[in-house]
Model the fold of this input.
Amino acid sequence: MGSGGERAKPFGRRTWCTLGLLWGAYPLPARLVALAGVVIAADDVVEHAFGVWTPLDAFWRHVLFPVVSSL
Done:
């Protein structure tokens, strides 16, 4: 609570919106890998819970599976 109408920042310089508290110690590539994992997991949840084919399922079936199965 300062003078001059400043808004109080409850977490200091970094706010929760920037994920500084949670991800600040990790390098950007690690953050991107974690984000990709969350996106893939969410896609899998939608596909298994609702039986809906998603773009990642189509990508797996038409692109990745042929490559992996030919190894």
Summary: The chain has three helices and no strands. The chain has a mean pLDDT of 79. Residues 1 and 40 are 43 Å apart (CA to CA). The radius of gyration is 20 Å.
